[in-house]
Design a protein that fits this description.
Helix content: 40-55%
Number of strands: 4
Number of helices: 7
CATH topology of the largest domain: Glutathione S-transferase Yfyf (Class Pi), Chain A, domain 2
Radius of gyration: 17 Å
Oligomer: single chain
Order of helices and strands: EHEEEHHHHHH
Strand order of the largest sheet: 2-1-3-4
CATH architecture of the largest domain: Up-down Bundle
Distance between the termini: 36 Å
Shape: globular
Length: about 210
């Protein structure tokens, strides 16, 4: 049986959501953050040296990194067409946005979060430059959603599952407003209406209201 090792309020929500979309049976092992540091508990380090989530186990398999887990599960279990085929006209767009979340958006948010913790002056040039980079990244998502209902095109795909965490739960750690981005907000309403997303969020973080506005 597949087991998802899920750290509350983390990128591992992606894997729960993917399994719900695929109708894939799984067991869920919850881990809670340290209430002071907000870091993962040491139990996760006993599964993987980095001590971070998500991790999946299945028999002898131990696999970390949300992108790798997504590709592994899609390659073995994709019965919904969530991974676009190389023959699909939108295949290149799918690959770009599938990798955009952890290759661009999430790292920019991580840098912004660390800089905020330094309590720099608002006119600090490093802070200003990073704010500009993050703004350009969000602008790109907004532009993309102006001509497409979903990131890869007209159809929902795994690229959406990868990206949504950064637009929602990540705002617990890096508060920011999406009010300048009406297309992103409309997109999040489409995501929030998906039954699989609702089930995943309820199972992964019961009691947490998804940040869709």
């Amino acid at each position: 049986m597949l087991t998802i090792h899920h750290l509350g309020k983390s990128q591992s929500e992606r894997i729960i959501w993917l399994c719900e979309e695929l109708g894939l049976p799984y067991q869920l092992q919850h881990y809670q953050r340290d209430t002071v540091t907000m870091l993962a508990p040491p139990e996760l380090a006993r599964l993987h040296p980095l001590g971070a989530a998500p991790v999946i186990t299945e028999g002898e398999l131990v696999l970390a990194e949300s992108g790798a887990i997504m590709q592994y599960l899609l390659a073995r279990h994709d019965n919904q067409g969530l991974a676009l085929a190389p023959t699909d006209p939108a295949f290149a767009d799918y690959l770009y946005w599938l990798n955009f979340a952890n290759g661009n958006l999430q790292p920019n948010m991580g840098r912004s979060m660390l800089l905020r913790k330094l309590d720099l002056a608002t006119d600090n040039p490093v802070l200003a430059a990073q704010n500009g980079r993050l703004g350009r990244v969000l602008d790109l998502v907004e532009i993309r959603l102006g001509s497409n209902d979903y990131l890869a095109g007209s159809a929902f795909s795994a690229a959406d599952i990868m990206l949504v965490f950064s637009l929602t739960t990540m705002r617990i750690f890096l508060p920011y407003t999406l009010s300048p981005y009406p297309r992103i907000l409309a997109y999040l309403q489409r995501i929030g209406a998906r039954a699989a997303y609702q089930r995943a969020m309820h199972r992964g973080d019961p009691g947490m209201v998804p940040m869709l506005t």
